[in-house]
Design brief:
Elements lengths: L8 H6 L7 E4 L3 E5 L9 E5 L11 H21 L4 E5 L15 E6 L14 H14 L1
Length: 138
Amino acid sequence: MIAYDNDNIFAKLLRKEIPAEVVFEDQDTLAFMDIMPRVDGHLLVIPKTPCRNLLDASADQIAAVAQTAQKLALAAKTALEADGVTLQQFSEAAGGQEVFHLHFHILPRHDGVPLRAPGQMGDMEQIKAIASKIRAAL
């Protein structure tokens, strides 16, 4: 198994070396807005402890992230009056993973609204406003 990189962007975020629009935090997990949202309300949920992805995560890390992902999916669906939610997790480069710290994408979905293209920076004021709605729904 490849070693965990303590300099990945999510490790830096956990150390507060870079900012994030945090929506939820508990002892084990952190949920924050994706700055390149594929849909309005696109969130990421990560464990606070190091692991590269689902393949090397402990059962406790997976359970904690799954519980937080469910909580945030429900809040985002309510806050944005979404019709459903897409949950994504990519493991290893061949599986589509780009940041090598376990993370789940939560994408609130509306019927007939496609995902935006990846890699496009979002409007931070709009992201902050959506984050406030999701926090209020928690």
